[in-house]
Amino acid sequence: MFPGEHVVVVGLGFGDEGKGAVVDTLCQDGTVASVVRFNGGAQAAHNVVAGERHHTFSQFGSGTLSGTPTLLSRYVLVEPIALAAEARELAALGVPDPLSLVSIDTAARLTTPIHVAANRAREDARGRDRHGSCGKGIGETVWYSLVSRRRPAPGSVFEGQEVPGAAGSAPTVGDCADPAGMRRKLDAMARFYEPLLAGSEHGFPAVSEMVSLYRDFAAAVRTVSGDEVGRRAERGTLVFEGAQGVLLDEWRGFHPHTTWSTVTPDNARALLGGRRAQVLGVTRTYQTRHGAGPLPTEDSRVRFPEAHNGVGRYQGAWREGHLDAVLLRYAVAACGGIDGLAVTHLDHAAKGLKVANAYSECGTDLPAGPGVTRLPGRCAPQLAELPRDPDALVDWFETLLDTPVRVTGAGADRADYRVRTAIPLHG
Amino acid sequence: MGHGKWDDDTYAAARTFRAAKGLDDFGYTSKMKAKSSKGWKADPSLDPLGVTARECRDSADHADSTPIAVLFDVTGSMGEVPKIMQRKLGKLHGLLQRKGYVTDPQILFGGIGDADSDRVPLQIGQFESDNRMDTQLRTIFLEGNGGGQKSESYELAAYFMARHIVTDAWQKRGRKGYLFLIGDELNKPRLEARHIRRIIGDDLGQDIDPASVYRELARKWNVYFVLPNQSSYYNDPEISAHWQGILGQNFLKLDDPGAVCELIATTIGIEERTVDLDQALVDLAEVGSVAESRSVGKALVQVGAGARALAPSATPPGLDGPDDVALN
To answer: Which residue, of A144, A392, B57, B286, has the greatest Cβ tally within 10 A?
Structure first.
């Protein structure tokens, strides 16, 4: 398949590109030693359909249906309550003892019900100006850990959010095995958020219950520390499964509609510590976005059936538009280049798809650097027809980005996915 | 600060993690059953012997505590029902909190056996308002024996509840607690002093009439007897007549033992007048307990009708602090 090569799978859009199905495809022949998550947390929703079985992967790696173990690296935000629920769903699909497949870095930060409540209280207060957050406490987890390191004054505004109190240090997966320490951290967090949550409809379980739950969690999953990626890389091929899309990246995305997460392959590269890996960028044949934020090619006439993406209370509506070559090139550049493409939803080619090769005011490429964040909303896309033949469309993608298409998807089921013969790259 | 949906999710997650570790819900029972019956005993945290009083106190977080005790028959005639109780009752606190039918619930669990024949005829936990009650539930020993004379030592449990429980609800506010006995047989004809001495440790000189124990108990507790289906005597008219004679309309038949939490929550809500039966059944359907709501509806038809006709409860007469630990 990709013999001997580690692969980093990243989304080149705003999420929902089909990363889950691609990872599932790469894992099917059983040669992948582990799927490594290197960003995001429980907000990930990677759909895999295998015949009658469907699962939306959130914290488990998308190779789980083939029995591939998951490593949640130190960059992942871990939410044990959701992890347990996902384990039950996977067990119901016939995956034996799903939790035994999961290992978690002790340095991974913990998303708690307190973060979730705070996230939702803030989004409620923003009203119509919501950021399109999933309401799962991801941003709040990152924000609180930043607050606990930098100690901004209570009442001040830090990284765009008001600081309600004095923060303690942020809980990690490693803390779960230490009930006394965990209790102190959760008590401090509950006090910190008290002014924000008082009067909101959002609450959380008693600290004692969370402490006890996290102790059970720590006993049920394998925790690791140090260079676990290095140890696993020695034993076999690793697939790094990115969450969300590069266009939502905390540095490269369009603010404020971004995620508090590095979506580019940077974290995966840091974990690999100099070991070689192929970066596989994933794109649909059209553009999609969940919730608020720029989507320059949005067109209400573009509507494709979408089985597993709906409207979330906090995330907002599901939106679609024409393929956007300007954004695609921007995303590839944000990744520092890619070694191959995975193109999904090729089954829609015959319907006659369009592409924006340029915007009327700013041409074919977004300028790099500050100021980029507002441009896509202002520029009118210039549309052209895309080939209706799927093979011709694949060729079109290869020419556009000067990179081979290595995985194709033409439907929701794993049977609709193909790995194409690897073409040697860059010598 | 509790939050019902979270409480249920937290509970479910804890169970998932324990199961992954190989800890089953009946851990203590498995451990005991691995020994010969001579070594069977209650876990020290549930042993009533020498206990002056189990306390249900207010705290800063729970300033208006409501005591709720659920004691279920763990003898053989109950069949699989004790296991169902042990598995389901952990949901009770989350359900009560989510519904808001009652202020600051604190829950005590316990097990009832046969003082004439069992190694462990009485187990009484502590009042808890967090998931330590879940641990307590799993620690109850399901001995599964019983004597076969269609009677168990419910009156021994009732005696402990009447004499060895102290609650702020009663002492500070004159409010009764809620006691649910879950079983399928009769009381013993007499509460024998020797059993009280051996199992609880009170130095009583003479046997007691069970009816007088329940009269004493009713001063400070709303007492209910729940006869669950899948037990041996669900359709035995002698059982119904016996308990209706003692508790009147507070005798409840439950056709689905899995709906025990929903029944308890609804019964309390109706007694507290925070909900009527019709609304409670709608509430249950809303939280996904549709099948359970049907069983609860059947069980409570007469209580619901009766409660609407009752006068509002006033502060009970003779409200006086410390007499509730009238130890001999």
So the answer is: A144
- Cα separation, B21 vs B29, in Å, equals 17
**Rounded Cα distance, B202 and B20, in Å:** 43
A5 close to A236: Cβ distance less than 8 angstroms: no
Contact A203 B6 (CB under 8 A): yes
Block means of pLDDT (10 residues each) for chain A, length 427 residues?
82 93 92 93 90 94 95 97 96 92 96 94 76 76 94 90 92 94 94 90 88 91 92 92 89 78 89 93 93 85 68 67 92 93 94 89 69 61 92 95 95 92 50
Mutate which of A78, A104, A191, A216 to disrupt the B interface (most B C-beta within 10 Å)? A216
Judge whether B51 lies within some domain. Answer: yes
Counting one residue from chain A and one from chain B, the pairs whose CB atoms sit within 8 A come to 81
Which pLDDT tens digit goes with each residue over B188-234? 999 999 999 999 999 988 999 999 999 999 999 999 999 999 888 89
Task: With respect to residue B198, please indicate whether it lies within any of the assigned structural domains.
Answer: yes
- Please check whether residue A101 touches B, CB under 8 A: no
Is residue B3 in some structural domain?
no
Residue B200 sits in a domain whose CATH number is: 3.40.50.410
A222 in B contact zone (CB under 8 Å): no
Among the ranges given (A173-182, B20-29, B114-123, B305-314), the one the predictor scored with the smallest mean pLDDT: B305-314
Torsion of CA A303, A306, A312, A315, to 10 degrees: -60
Token pair recorded at residue A190: 């509950």
How many angstroms away from the CA of B61 is the closest CA of chain A?
10
Query: Touching check for A206 and chain B: CB below 8 Å?
Result: yes
Residue B2 domain flag: no
Q: Which domain holds residue B182?
A: 8-327
- The residues of A carrying an active-site annotation are 16, 46
Q: How many domains does chain B have?
A: 1
Among the partner residues A85, A203, A208, nearest to B13 by beta-carbon distance: A85
CB atoms within 10 A of CB B51: 14
Q: Which residue of chain B has the CA closest to A217?
A: B17
- Res A38: pLDDT: 95
A44-92 tens-digit pLDDT = 899 999 998 999 999 999 999 999 999 999 999 999 999 999 999 999 9
B13-39 residue pLDDT tens: 988 988 887 666 667 887 888 788 888
Residue type, A46: H
Residues of B engaging A, defined by a Cβ cutoff of 8 Å: 1-3, 6-7, 9-10, 12-14, 16-18, 20-21, 61, 129-132
pTM here?
Answer: 0.69
φ, ψ for residue A231, nearest 5 deg: -60, -45
DSSP string, A146-177: HHHHH-PPTTSEETTEE--S---PPPBGGGGG
Q: Is the dihedral of CA A61, A64, A68, A72 positive or negative?
A: positive
Q: What is the CA A390 to chain-centroid distance, rounded?
A: 27
Nearest to A206 among B2, B9, B18 (CB): B2
Q: Mean pLDDT across chain B, nearest whole number?
A: 85
